[in-house]
Amino acid sequence: MSTKGETSTGSGASRSTLPLKLSQLQNFCKRDPDGYKEDYDAQSRRLVSLVGILSLSPNADPSPSLVELIQFMAAVSSSSYKGEESDRIAALLMDLLVGSSSSSSSSNQQQPLSPAGSAPLLQSTLPLAALQLHRDIRKACVSALILMRNKGAVPPLRLLQLFFQLMAVVPDKNLRESLYHHIVNDIRNINKNGKRDEKLNRTIQSFFHRIVAASANESSPGGEDSPTDYAAKRAVQMTCDLYRRNVWNDERSIHILATAASSPNSSVMSRALRFFLNIEEAMALDQKSTEEAKWAGSETIDLHLHSKKTKAKQRVVAKQIKNRQKKQHLREGLIEAQREDKGVESSRKLFPAIELLNDPNGLCEIILKRIKSSGSNTYKFEVKMLMLNFVTRVVGNHELILLPLYALLQRYMGGHQRDVTAILAYSVQACHSYVPPEEVYGILKTIAHNFITERCSGEQMAVGINAARAICARVPSVLSDEEITNQDNNDEGKSKSISWDVEAFVRDLAGYSKHRDRSVSIAGKGWVNFIREVYPSLLQGKHRGLVGSGLHRAGEKPLRYGEVRAASGVEGADLLVAYEASKKAAEDEESSNGDEGDDNNEDEWAEVESGDEEGVEADEGDEDGWVEVDSDDEDNEDEEDEDEEFADDEEVSDDEAPDLVLLAESNGEEAADGEDDTEKKLDLSKMSAKDRAKLQQQVSSTRIFTAAEFAKMQKLVERQKQARRDPRLAAKLKRAKAKGEEFADISDDDDDNSDDELHIKGAVNATDIMADAKRKRMSKAEKLEKIIEGRQKWEAKERPGGSTNTEKKRKKNFAMSKFAYSTRKKMGEKTTAKHGRSKTSKVKDGRAAKKRRRKV
């Protein structure tokens, strides 16, 4: 389309009198808005007239220049005439899209979004003129409005409701996709580079929530999708995308998706449920792909192998190689940190989106009620499985008590049920320590009857045993062997005792460790290993093994339902007291031995000079008499003694903090100085559990521990746990205790390195961020000590007792084990065996060649 250029009133000779195209006029309006205002107004009036003609006959073919004119007016009004003119053009295009009048558009301009109390946000249908509008004109209007929004001429809230209404009603798929991507990108740009507009975010999120809530109130299970349902699906999908891109990862977004999860519409509900179940994996994959893309970009280097080598190219290649080495070191450092330090990763929640749910119990009850009340044609089987997966995961993550869930799961545990493995997995993740054992008994019995029987295949039996092991691991109170009493309402108050024979159940499953099928045998061995750790007394002696026997002697058993092990003090405080008492007794013994040696040396002769002989004889003469001392000297000696005692007290008070004293010692129960070493030692094995807990609580409440003492207690507790699991180590400690060397293997060398070498997982140590040149190097003595320690570790035999069968087999003569099965199996593929096989084959061929042939 062209326009006639007229003489200028204010710009003089700068105006052209030749016909102008719209692209040229757009350039001139950008350079001189005031000079070309009349030409712009003419095109504006022309646009209004064409839009009026199109609204009268929407079925007619539009003018070919209308699309170009719409783009021109949107570009010029949003850049050169921003303000009232751009608002007028935007309102005109919105009226053309929705088919409304200018009066209604002015009212919509003042209130772009409906308040919370008003009802329906979106119209279910559009006028006939808007529905019959040509797709090119509709696409041109949408692209023009997006252009004006990108230039800041139109606020985002004005377009949001319009675009949602178009997505809900207009059947143009390409247009709906473009609208969807524009809304998502617009919200991302609003919150880009750390500049978050929280007020705008809250307004948009409240609009999304009202759309989803309206869909949940209007729709019915199994009904057809309405325009509100389609808008709700789009709102849920946008919220999921924005959460995945870390734009909206707050509680308000989770509340929108929780409302969508309670919607009766299957499409809206399934989108929200898939988000809660898969969002963490999707975000992890996105992060991994981003890191791999960064590494792939730095990995490819053009070395110019087939081109001319210049200095500039060599500098570019050297720079690329240097950058790749930096990224490689950074990547290796991140991998090493993730491998070694799991403190931060373990402290994170497994499902953060599920953790942000406001009312998880109410949401699970709504969905569970919908599963139980819906018929076979209401929801598809896949949707029901999705609902069960979500409910069980929320119950297991929040540790909810939803008792009707376990009875429902038993209905789907048939041997020929579709996706029965997934049902068993959902049953496992629905169990936690707060579930009553009576509810879990039914699930275990159903699994045992339907899967762990000889009529089932090996795969079914292995799945059943593994499921039972996982359930018992999550609810260890099921293995407690006490009887459960149920009150029967039909027997007039008589109690009916239902005994769960745990021992028989455990031993039956343990018997499958010797099954002929390999998968069943592996599952049975896994069950046996689990019972060894939790409750080894339920197993037979042949199944307990080394660890199970040690825990059986220690009395290891799971807690009963509702029972909690409450900490009575700092763990290992009693062991620390026993260690210090043993250490003090050893020091006192050494000092007493040293004093006896000094007494023995007193009778020896001393060399005396000739000048001192007279003094010695005088002393020997006065040995039995009194020594005369003046009274003044006595007073001076007393004053000097008092001054020395006062000086000692001052030195103690200035340099050292006073020790905390137990109340028992202050009441006169302090141990005597001349007590024996056996009385000073503290024997914890002779104390009961209550006495040890009392001692632990008393020491923890009257003493302040240092970092070195915490490290020492951790070592002592770890050694005690290992002794409970290993009978050999327990016997070794018992023999050392009889010799008085119970704590000989624990040294005090680590006490000096109190806070410098103590590293807590998840915390940042100063040496990690220190420069390489500033790090403390090992001295020559430390290097030599490390070398000697390594030699002793590999050369000396640390294990007590005789040699093992492996060591004996290694030292055995080869001629004795030459024809053993292990040797023959090992030598099967070696060259000697191959040579032997080829030799025998050649012999056979030679014999066959010597056979006489019949003459013809």
TrEMBL record:
Domain SDA1 N-terminal intervals: 129-484
Region annotation (Disordered) ranges: 582-682, 719-757, 791-856
Keywords from the named record: Nucleus, Protein transport, Ribosome biogenesis, Transport
UniProt superkingdom: Eukaryota
InterPro entries per UniProt: Sda1, SDA1_MD, SDA1_N
Bias type Basic and acidic residues, positions: 719-729, 791-800
Domain SDA1 middle, residue spans: 626-790
GO CC field: nucleolus
Biased composition (Acidic residues): 587-658, 667-677, 743-755
GO biological process: one example: ribosomal large subunit export from nucleus
Main location: nucleus
Pfam families membership: SDA1_dom, SDA1_HEAT
Cellular compartments annotated: Nucleus, Nucleolus
Function: Required for 60S pre-ribosomal subunits export to the cytoplasm.
Family to which the UniProt record says this protein belongs: Belongs to the SDA1 family.
Protein name: Protein SDA1
